[in-house]
Amino acid sequence: MSYSCLSVVASTRAVVASTRARTGRARRASARVEASGDDAVKVIDRRAVLRGALSLAALDVLAPSRARAVNIGDKAPDFTLRGTKGASVHLGDVLNEQKFTVVYFYNQDGSPGCSVEAQRFEAAIPEFAKREARVLGISMDSLDKHEQFCADKGLKSFTLLSDGDGSVSESYGADLKIPIFGRFSDRQTFLVDGNGTIINHWLERDQSMASVKTTAHVEQILNAIDAA
Fold first, then answer.
1. Is the pLDDT reported for residue 74 higher than 70?
2. Summary mean pLDDT of the chain
3. CA–CA separation, 214 vs 61, rounded Å?
4. pLDDT digit string (tens) for 119-144?
């Protein structure tokens, strides 16, 4: 069975929430206080304690871990990555050529949310071009997967870059590790000016990013460029 990263994250969060609930119940059940006159005798339920310990261990195993994100006012970490249509993209070169660069990290080629997000960017490329802004999409998928993704979704106007070892995602704090399921780029978008400074940053997980399933996030970026 094939899982999209978003489904994996949602499933993991559900398991973690359920585990926390079980841990709470186990803690409450682990000690009963029986009153006898002025004395209180604590009776330990050994099985409940063991269940609680196992639940806490599961939380450590299942909880996604993320690198620290760079943020507004920071210099955008430089990179050179191979991209679709035979491109090799050096961020420094792009910054010299454009007033703005949109660097967006996404989870996985072909997943429903990432597909719609990419198509929203594709439709808005003329608006970005008017503002002298270039869009770069980055995930940890291979170049072959990127090329197939572009062919399947009609992505012709911007470049997808392959961060195969995850080092660029990690340098931006967009590195999402989910035990058992693997490593992905975390959905984040950075707006970088011509000096290489991050002037805006949106994350899906803290809801600063408008919905990628509508035009809202693309409009959010265009408005930020207009306000810069």
1. yes
2. 81
3. 34
4. 999 999 999 999 999 999 999 999 99
pTM: predicted TM-score of the whole model, two decimal places: 0.73
17 and 73: one domain? no
The Cα–Cα gap between 106 and 183 comes to 12
Same structural domain, 113 and 167: yes
User: How many Cα neighbours within 13 Å face the side chain of 42?
Assistant: 6
Token pair for 191:
């707006």
Tell me, yes or no, whether 44 and 80 share the same domain. no
**Cα separation, 64 vs 179, whole angstroms:** 7
Identify the sign of the CA torsion 68, 202, 222, 214.
positive
Q: Exactly one of 81, 91, 103, 114 is catalytic; which is it? A: 114
* 114 is known as an active-site residue: yes
